[in-house]
Design goal:
The protein has about 290 residues and is an alpha/beta fold. About 35% of the residues lie in helices and about 20% in strands. Helix 6 packs across helix 10.
Length: about 290
């Protein structure tokens, strides 16, 4: 039985949306951000797709030498960020993994001479690029297994596409229905620590770090809406590397590799406004893969 990718999304994970309660109250519990409302819209799409597994391309899980797929049976703990522990702490998590898919990803990659490997250790540390989506999309309550894939930092962009190709083939061989989530921002340049907002709404797009980053992000968004992933990839070596996406774009590039790379024509539907987070450009965008129900 062939597996299918039954949906995919580019998803923001920015930490302002999973702050401790005290901090969230001070900022209006996120009412300033359409990304929070966008999570509910994305939950509806995932529920309709009825996946057997959710694969999260985690732009914060940096590895060296290999793209890793976490293959633990279950992950439990309480998350605290070493990046921002003063407000991002005390987040409990308890969700299922998918060891069989992780091992299939490694098997396909070895066949192809690639660099994807499985790491099957339940104590493997978590990153908020995964935990935020697990919490906001209520994957624990839905009891959907989650597999995170890392961003290998000593890779160039074609390596990420090839990593995604192996993951896509592993899903096809697995017989599983999978939803892919590319967890990360588009342009990823932070505002300086003493920066003053251009707009009183914290998450407003005009607070993105630079006008040229806004222009580049919006151009990419239009290509994605048209399903022209080939045009996004054409611009990657030049424009999108000069105005870099988060994690070198690993989260998007692995996702689109799994969807067929330059041949992918899955049209994107914005499920949130395009917004700022500390100067980075963020959006939730769903891609209907057209797979059978």
């Amino acid at each position: 039985m062939n597996g299918h990718i039954v949906g995919a999304a580019l998803v923001s994970h920015h930490p302002g949306l999973m702050q401790c309660e005290e901090f969230r109250v001070l900022q209006g519990a996120g009412a300033d951000s359409d990304l929070i409302a966008g999570y509910a819209r994305l939950r509806e799409r995932i529920a309709a797709a009825a996946p057997d597994v959710v694969v999260i391309f985690d732009s914060h899980w940096f590895t060296t030498g290999y793209h890793l797929a976490d293959g633990g049976e279950r992950y439990r703990g309480t998350y605290i960020s070493d990046e921002m522990p003063w407000y991002l702490h005390g987040v409990p998590y308890d969700y299922r993994g998918h060891p069989a898919l992780a091992l299939e990803i490694e098997a396909v990659s070895r066949e192809r001479g690639g660099y994807n490997r499985a790491i099957c250790h339940p104590e493997l540390g978590r990153q908020y690029a995964t935990i935020n989506l697990v919490k906001q999309l209520r994957l624990e309550q839905a009891n959907i297994p989650v597999l995170s894939a890392s961003s290998c930092q000593n890779c160039d962009w074609p390596h990420f596409v090839r990593s995604g190709e192996a993951i896509g083939e592993a899903i096809r061989r697995s017989g599983l229905r999978a939803v892919l989530l590319a967890s990360g921002a588009m342009s990823h340049k932070f505002n300086p620590i003493d920066w003053k907002p251009n707009h009183p709404r914290i998450f407003h797009e005009s607070n993105v770090s630079r006008p040229e980053n806004i222009a580049s992000d919006k151009q990419a968004i239009e290509f994605l809406k048209q399903g022209r992933h080939d045009l996004v990839l054409e611009r990657w070596q030049d424009e999108y590397r000069k105005l870099p996406w988060e994690a070198f774009g690993a989260h998007y590039l692995q996702m689109v590799g799994a969807l067929g790379g330059s041949d992918c024509r899955a049209k994107g539907e914005a499920l949130s406004a395009y917004e700022n987070a500390r100067g980075t450009g963020n959006i939730h965008m769903w891609f209907d893969t057209g797979r059978p129900a």
